[in-house]
C-alpha cells in the first residue's frame, strides 16, 4: 500500500485554558438558542451566506475522506412547489395510514401535521444527498465508507453554521424521499438524506414549549 502524503499540522491553534473555557461556553450559549422553526419569512438570504455555510459542511470528517455528500440548494419557486406537493403526499400517507399510534402521540406536542407550507415560503431549501458510491473519471465505482455517519456529521456542521450566521433551520424528512432525485435530477447513487429548510423566521414565528436534557442525562464521565 502506498504511503499517504502527510504534511505538517499548521492550521491547529492552541489556546490558553481561560480562552478555551470562554469559547466553549460562548458556543454553547449560541447553540442553545437554536430552535427548529416551521414558520418562515420569504425574505431572501444575503448572497454568499449559504455558500460559506456549505463550505463549512464540506470540512466535516468522513470515512476514508470520501466526502460522500452532495447538497442541492433550491431557490426556484416552481421546484419548491413540486417538492411541497410531493412531500405532503407522503406526509398524508404517514399521518393517516403508516404512523403507529405511539409515534403520533410523540409528535402531538410539536403540533405537526401533513401540511408543509414552509417548503414554499422559506427562501431556500437545501436537499442533502448521501452518495452510496462515487464514480471515477473512467466510470468505475469508488467505494464509500460510513456514508450515513459522514453525511450526518456534515449536516450537523451545516446546521450550526447556518444558525451562527443568523438563520433559522428545520430538518424535514418525509419518507420515502425518492421524489427528490426526480425533481432535482440527481443520479441513482445518491439517496436523499434530508431536506434542510433555511431562512429567516417569520416575524410572529412560534416554537413548541420544550426543553433539552441536562448534561447529567446525556453524558457520563468515567
Short overview:
The chain has 222 residues and is α+β, with helices and mostly antiparallel strands. The protein is built from eight helices and six strands, in the order H-H-E-H-H-H-E-E-E-H-E-H-E-H.
Overview of the molecule:
Strands 1-2-6-5 form a 4-stranded antiparallel β-sheet. Strands 3-4 form a two-stranded antiparallel sheet. The protein is globular and about 55 Å long. Helices cover 39% and strands 16% of the residues. It has 222 residues and is of the alpha+beta class.
**Judging from the principal axes of the Cα atoms, what is the shape?**
globular
Question: Any low-confidence stretches, pLDDT <50, length ≥5?
Answer: none
SSE sequence, one letter per element: HHEHHHEEEHEHEH
CATH topology: NADH Oxidase
Largest sheet: 4 strands, antiparallel
- CATH architecture tag: 3-Layer(aba) Sandwich
Q: Could you name the CATH class?
A: Alpha Beta
Average pLDDT for all residues: 94
Domain tally: 1
The total beta strand count reads: 6
Measured distance between first and last alpha carbons: 38 Å
Indicate the topology.
Blueprint: H1 17-32, H2 49-57, E1 69-74, H3 77-98, H4 101-107, H5 118-121, E2 124-131, E3 133-135, E4 141-143, H6 147-165, E5 168-172, H7 179-184, E6 190-199, H8 215-218
Antiparallel strand pairs: 1-2, 2-6, 3-4, 5-6
Helix pairs in contact: 2-6
